[in-house]
Amino acid sequence: MADRLPRPHRDDVRIAVGGLLGGLFLWGVGLYSRGPDDPMALVDAGWAVLVPLVITAGCELMRRTRPRTALLIGTVALVADLLTRGNLATIVMFTDLVYAAVLYGSPGAARRIPWITGLITVIGTVWPVAAWRKPEGLLIGAFTGLVTFTPAATGWIVRNHRDTAVAERLRAEQTALLAEMDRTQAVTAERARMARELHDMVANHLSAIAIHSTAALSLDDPRTSKDALAVIRENSVEGLAEMRRLIGILREGGNDREPAAVPTLDGLAALVEGARANGLDIRLDTDHGRVPAPVELAAYRIVQESLTNALKHARPGRVTVTLAQRDDVLDVRVTSPYGHGDGPRAPGSGAGLVGMRERATLLGGTLAAGPDGALWAVRAALPLTEGAAE
Fold first, then answer.
1. Does this model's pTM top 0.85?
2. Residues 96-116, buried b or exposed e (16+ Cβ, 10 A)?
3. Fold exhibited by the domain 265-390
4. Which pLDDT does position 199 carry in this prediction?
5. Which of 87, 108, 360, 373 is spaced 20 to 30 Å from 80 by Cα?
6. For the segment 118-161, what is each residue's pLDDT rounded down to a tens digit?
7. Residue 262 confidence class, pLDDT cut points 50, 70, 90
8. What is the DSSP secondary structure assignment for residue 43, as one 8-state letter?
9. CATH 3.30.565.10: which residues of the chain?
10. C-beta separation of 354 from 302 below 8 A
C-alpha cells in the first residue's frame, strides 16, 4: 500500500489559500505580468494563467512536508506561466517554494539548490547580454536571480541560524545534564564521606559502651559495675562531642563557632589511651616526618577503626600500632591477636573495612586486612605526594 501524503501544515494551507486568492484577484482585474504583444506569451487566453496558478498553490500545500516534490512541480508550473501572459502571484509562490526547499529539505538539497540557482542566475545574465548585445539583458539576469537565487540564499541563511540554535539548545541541555550528573556524584561522594566519618567517630565509643554494659550486666560485682559505668559515661560524653562536631560541620551557618579541628597523628596517643581504658593492651610505635593533612586524617581513622575492631573481635593479648614513613609512603600497620572465640563482644555493621579501603583508595594508596598467622593484621600504604593527597 502506498504511503498516504502527510497532512499539510496549517500555515502552508494559509499560504496556499492566500496565494490562490491573490492570483485570482489579479486575474479578475486583468493585471498580468506581460502584455499581449510579448513574444513569450504563446497562449494569449486570459484563463490560461489560472492553470499554473492553481498548480503552484497546490505545491504550497507540500512546501513543508514534500519540499523537493513541490519545487519540481512548481518549476514546471513556472515554465508554463512563462508561456502565458503571466500572473505575479504564481511567481511569488514559486520563490516561496525555492525558499522552503532549502529550509525544510534534506541537507544535500539545501546545499545544492543555492549552487544551481546561482548558476541559473549567471546563465540568465550572460546569455541575454551575449545574444542581444544590449545592457537591457542584465534585467533578465536580475529578475532570474530575484526569483531563484535570492530565496535560495535566504533559506540557506535561515536554515543555518536554525541549525545553530538547535545545536546550542542541545549543547545547553547536555551541559545541564552533565552538571546534574556532577552534582549527583558530588552528593553521593559527600554522603559516603560523612558516612565514613560518622562510623569512625562513633563506632569506637559505642562498641566500648556495648562491651562494658554487657560486663556490668553479667557480673554481680558492684565495683566492676561502677568501673564499667565510668567507662560507659566517658565514652558517651566523647561520642556525644564527636556527634556535635559532625553536626556542626553539616549545619551551614547553624553555629558561629568553628567545629573542632579534625584529628591528626598527634592525637594517636590520646586515642591509644582511650582504647587502653577500654581494656586493650596496646603498644604504639610511630616514626614519621611531616604528613599532609588528608593523609593524617586517613591514617588516624584507619588506626581508630582497627582498634574498634580489635575491641570487638580480638582475643586477649597485645595490640600493636606501627606508623613508619618509607620514601613517599606512610605505612600504617595494626595487629591484634586472632583466633576462634565466642564471637564478637559487640555487634558490627561490616562497614569498617569498606570505609578504610575507601580512605586509602581516595589517596591513591592501598589497604589489606586479614589473618597473618596468629594475628589479624591491617596494613595501609598511603602516598605522601601532593598529587595523591589532594
1. no
2. bbbbbbbbbbeeeebeebbee
3. Heat Shock Protein 90 (3.30.565)
4. 66
5. 108
6. 898 888 888 877 777 777 668 887 888 888 999 999 999 999 99
7. low
8. -
9. 265-390
10. no
